[in-house]
Amino acid sequence: KQGFKTTIDEQDREIIEQHQMILTLSQAIQQGVIKNTKLKKIKSQVRITSSTEIDTIFIPFEVEHIRDAKIDPEKYLSLPKKFSKLNQWYTIRGLVVKEGLKIDSIRVFNMLTVTIGDKKLKGLKNIFKQRIPTVEIVNENPYISVNGLQNVVIKKKKRFYQTTGFKVVVGFALGTFTTILILN
Question: Which UniProt keywords apply (predicted)?
Answer without folding.
Answer: Membrane, Transmembrane, Transmembrane helix
